[in-house]
Amino acid sequence: MNLWLILSLFTSILAVKDYLFKPCEQNGFCNRNKHYSKNVESSPYNINEINFNSEGNFISGIIHKSLPSRTVKLPFEISIIEGNFRFKMNENRQDINSIVNINRYDETPKWAFINTTNDQFIYKNKEIIYRDHKVAVQFNPVKFTFYYKGKPQLIINDKHFLNFEHQLLNDSDLLPFESTYNTNSDDFPDSKNDKLPLGRESIGLDFTLLEFNHLYGIPEHADSFSLKDTSNSEPYRLYNVDIFEYETNSKLPMYGSIPLLVTSKPEVSLGIFWVNSADTYIDINKGKDSSLVHFMSENGILEFIIIIEEKPQLVNYQYGKITGFSTLPNLFSLGYHQCRWNYNDEGDVLDIHSKFDQFEIPYDAIWLDIEYAENKKYFTWNKETFPNPEKMMSVLDRTGRNLIVIIDPHIKTGYQISDELLAKEITIKDSQNSTYFGHCWPGESVWIDTLNPNSQSYWNNNHLQFMKNNKNLHLWNDMNEPSVFNGPETSSPKDNLHFGNYEHRSIHNLYGLTYHESTYKSLINRNSNIRPFILTRSYFSGSQRTSAMWTGDNMSKWEYLKISIPMILTSNIVNFPFSGADVGGFFGNPSKELLTRWYQTGIFYPFFRAHAHIDSRRREPWVVGDPYTGYIRDAIRLRYKLLPVFYTSFYINSINGTPVIKPIYYENLDNGDIYDIDDEFFISDTGILVKPITDEAESKVNWIIPDDSIYYDFTNGVLSGVYKDREYGLGDIPMLLKGGSIIPMKLRYRRSSKLMKYDPYTIVIALDKDGKAYGELYVDDGESFNNDHAFIKFKFENKKFSYCIDGDYLFKLEKLIINGITVTNFKNNTIVDFDIDYHDEL
Amino acid sequence: MLLLFLLTTVLSDIIGVSPEDQHLYQPEIINGEKKWHCLNDSSIILNVNQINDDICDCPDGSDEPGTNACPVTPFKFYCKNEGFIPGYIDQFKLNDGVCDYEICCDGSDEYKFENCENKCQEINRQYQEYKEETQKFVKEALKKKDSIINQAKSKRTQLINLWNKLEKSLPMKKMEINNLKLEAESNQQHDLTVFDLLGDKIVNLIERIENHKKSTIKQQNSIQALEKILDRLSKEYNPNFNDLAVKDSIHKFQHYVSNKEEEVSEDIHETNQVLHDLVEKAKELTHSGDSTEPTFGNMFHHYFKTIIGTFLTKPKDSVEPKSSTDLSPKIGALEKELAEYEKRIDDIKNNLNMNFGPDDILRAFDSLRITKKLGGYHYIINILGSIVQDDILIGNFKEYKDGKLYYNKGARCWNGPQRSAEVEFQCGKGPELISVSEPEKCHYYFIIKSEAWCNEITDEEITENFKINYDLL
């Protein structure tokens, strides 16, 4: 009885306060779209006018929405952007004499996209033809059917969920199946002050995916990799929020959002890119032969892009051509990051720093959370605890270590930095267009409006003055959802105003992107030849270009270790590979075993950082003691041995979008059993297969072998014989290497990644059934934007190892490990014959 | 026979190997070629050019004393450090771009890139300066330590003197008490009217107790109501709003709940017992003859009646206070004093037996109070008393053991154990608190610098502790 009481007490304390977040039913636009979709009889939207331009690369026209009393004219556009179908639908509104910009927000691409070009296409007989794609256009009601490989793959508005809430001119201006729930006021407790000056303005649309049953993407949710049917649950929601103590297996929104949904089946992969930055819900209904996806957004124009390709990796490529690929990270940022809220002072930082060397554990960056600044006033140092930060940074720099400090978008009122922000009028404004004052860590604060182009020079100057020319200083941008402690759903009121007098409602999900991009520009302004590192918590489509992300405030529990893998896989397949979860869990104190297993998993997070809450115990790798400290040391060292693999994978991602950690279905679309596997993954195309242990006291791994290749035991990064069932002790990291792979490693321990620069590579070769293997390596200086590099292709065929190099950056080979046998007597860039009977190995 | 193959000419020095160990790398001539075998495995024969060729051939790493090719090596890399003390550096620090001047002031750890200037001269200057300062400091510190030890000694002597003094005064006290007791006994028969004076006071007392109880119950009810409100607040508040006032209040409330005394459910028994004893005593002294035994139910009424009936009816003027009535408080006071003396003697004995570190040195700190603001908290450390963080008790001194001071029985943490602490003393200018950490939840670790912990220092220790001032390089 007592025990039960204690347990229930704990769950009530540690659970997310879900009453703080709007469910669909209580969120006006979601409620109305769901009502519409249930009650619509026939779609009132017809194409009335369609014009194909003389350049042959643009369609414009008018869609009529037929009301009982009148017809609403809605202009639309169709183009082919970087080879993909793009649709836009807008509305010409009448002025209502308000401060608010009356136009529907259409600038989401301005932030999310890079420079793109429109392609020519053919339009005839109500068919749009581009590349090897065809889209049949039905006029009445409007409907698009996408054909690829001779078969229909996708139908849009097949279910008549297209809903474009037009500006109301009078009360009878509605269709019978249109609801008026919360159109002019919001009765959700924390949102009662929302003035909704433009009334209802939501959009919704259905996508029928033919013969597709496995859907992915639309992060961020602490849920399975494969999206679930939401017929009997909440829809997935995209609304960037500071969700405190989030729960696993939940469709609640989180810190970031990428409105890209992808799906695959043999021969065809497809992406729906819903180009909208407002509050959004996605309902998924999985039928027998098809899946129905219903997107609903609170406002903005209706815009989407359809990507249809043969393979999922090509969807990544197409999406990357539109939103940009990740910039190749600064090499150090792929090393190990040691963080804690907080390292208290310079002595503390330097003590942690020297302990890494004392325990011979490599690390690359130490972090400072909000306590380093005086009273959380960013761009200042607490002089009592950090009297001489420059000197501290120079000590870190001596062994190639970096310092990463936090700078958030809330600026405390009452000091020079916020005074200037107010004077320049570059703050987020309230609904009356005066500066909005809210609460966050420092107390009363104002927020920089990074949508305002005038904010950049202010931001640049402050970074210059604060960071000076410390080359090993990088940044952490947190709380940029934005998190507002006293705001509705812990964020900005939706009727706040941004540059151009657009409501916050329209741009909410991309604010975090504008913030960290502004920081990126400031860092480039400071030093244009060092690749900046920025960690962001909030993100949107396009964030991958300039930042890394982490999955926010998780807990020291096994279930959070487990869910981190599907979350990071999801981020990887929507082109944001530089992602990780807090190793050890943010809240609470992990057991020794959990901490060990978390490190062993964390070394495969593309972004590898340990972090802990201020109330948790110290847990740097040596605190736990041996044998655990030894296991953790081995794990971190393995990450460093694999840095060439990660760096090369990031390089490949930066040119074609290939995920850095990759689901096993990606290259095995004919294997219908593996589409939902989310506890096992490949590292890029390297052939390294990983299945972390995420259960307590587990020593077995149930490997899913995705294809009929040979797989070798590669436990702890050591190549041995063909994989067999085995026990994995607490010091063992389950890994396999696919036959046919060649991977570059750097096996020698150094204190940091920078100090490994001159060490030679060891080439690990796992032969396939025909005795062949292939692999790649990318090398450059690891930190600048110089183009000096080398891209090396390795080949093992006919008992001969050879490689060819593109570029002239110096690199050195040390030895080969072929199916577990070490060979040292070969020379660079010559073909060498190895007398190895690899068949004996099998 | 092996000797025949030994080479007589000495090759140039093997890099990374100290002069004393160079002989281990003398090559042999096998079939006319210069060969060398791994130090711990003579079956692995290498060409001499395989030594330090950046490829690891020997399982013990002995072929690569001058590179980082082997994961283990039999000895570290030797830096000559001309003009300074030779150093031995881990191979993983070789040729990594870092001038590890702490060990190799001559920069020879980076021999491949030659990016490290020889700084032995400046480092030697710093070292000599540091050595001089350290030796000077230790000399001074040891003087101070001596005086601290003397303080401790004199404190011990003081205690022993006090003990003796107390011990000596005991017989006198005892005798005094006995004399008074005898005197009191002879006056016993005149004591009958002692309670005449107290009757109305007791009535008053009983009424006051009743009233007090009522108001206590009232107060308890309102405290319970408030606790209920706070409990609800602490469970259902919105942590996302991060209102510091709310968070702080909740934190303090949780602290309050964790440290709340067990409620004494019903003290009526005790109160009644006190009254019962009081009246029993009264009965003894009055010989009233009323022997009706009180039951629990009628106890109050019974005693009330007895007290009122017995005393209040008697005329007040018949009370004649005798001198003997003044004796019992005096006896009581003396007995209390005696008990206190005995307790103090016990305390002194225990104290003298306690471990106060080498030379009994902590005894000198028995009234030392160190205060400091660290990491946002204000600490007060009474070395042999309590440690307080802001207004929270971290612990009381328990013992000195294995070089450290232990404190326990601090305020209980919410959802956690009682707070406790360890204090480590280090040699240095002090006494000063230099760091606080919390290695385990609610268990604190303090480091205090003091000359009391200084000892004679060897040259090796000085070398080990020496830190280079890079700003001057």
From TrEMBL, chain A:
One example of a Gene Ontology biological process annotation: N-glycan processing
Keywords, alphabetical: Endoplasmic reticulum, Glycoprotein, Glycosidase, Hydrolase, Signal
**InterPro entries, per the entry:** Gal_mutarotase_sf_dom, GH, Glyco_hydro_31_C, Glyco_hydro_31_N_dom, Glyco_hydro_31_TIM, Glyco_hydro_b
Domain (Glycoside hydrolase family 31 N-terminal): residue spans on this chain: 76-283
Write out the annotated subcellular location.
Answer: Endoplasmic reticulum
Q: Which Pfam families match?
A: Gal_mutarotas_2, Glyco_hydro_31_2nd, Glyco_hydro_31_3rd
GO terms for cellular component: glucosidase II complex
Q: Which residues form the signal peptide?
A: 1-15
Q: Describe the location of the Glycoside hydrolase family 31 TIM barrel domain by residue ranges.
A: 327-648
**Name under which the protein is recorded:** Glucosidase II subunit alpha
TrEMBL record, chain B:
- UniProt record, GO biological process: N-glycan processing
Instruction: Report which superkingdom the organism of origin falls in.
Output: Eukaryota
Keyword Signal attached? yes
Instruction: Kindly name one Pfam family recorded for this protein.
Output: PRKCSH-like
Statement: the UniProt record of this protein carries the keyword Endoplasmic reticulum? yes
Matches recorded under PROSITE patterns = MRH
Q: Which residues form the signal peptide?
A: 1-19
Report the coiled-coil segments: 113-140
Q: What is this protein called?
A: Glucosidase 2 subunit beta
Annotated source species = Candida verbasci
